[in-house]
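Quick note —
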Amino acid sequence: MKKKLLIGLAILVVLIVAFVLYANNRNRTLSPPGETSVQANGMEVSINYSRPSVRDRMIFGEEEEGALQPYGVYWRLGANEPTLIEVSSDFKFGDDDFPAGKYVIYGFPRKGEMEIRLNSDLRLWGYTEPDYAQDLSTVVVPVSRNEHVEQFTITTEEGTNGVNVVFTWGNYKWVLALEKQ
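Predicted structure written out below.
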């Protein structure tokens, strides 16, 4: 009797582990990991994120219209895990100064602009919304039209006094400037 119970329990554990591995792999395949980094103007910026695809969906818009990412709703600037940014030197995010380090960035899309927030809570996992009390700064940048980019992409490039972080997805593009202090 005990032997049958242990065999049944072992089979159940194997099935649960197999399902978790399958679900995690499927998620990673649909939104694979991405990373970008650049050294420019005396600073290095590295970003780790996940890359969802458009797949014939409306990306930004009103919730009633079926937008994948509705206006005014929290978005982790990617998929799967929060988007992490690491800056090697003191930097300016909007009008605020910050020490070198690792942070979470996320956004709230709006019509014609993107609100991007810098947050110190690195314990986030999955879709979990951040502790807004740990927000450090907010920047609102304009969103422009762009040629179609199927997978969400973040690139980093040399800016005037630091590094520009360029976000593209669907027919949209927006740029966040980080200045070296």
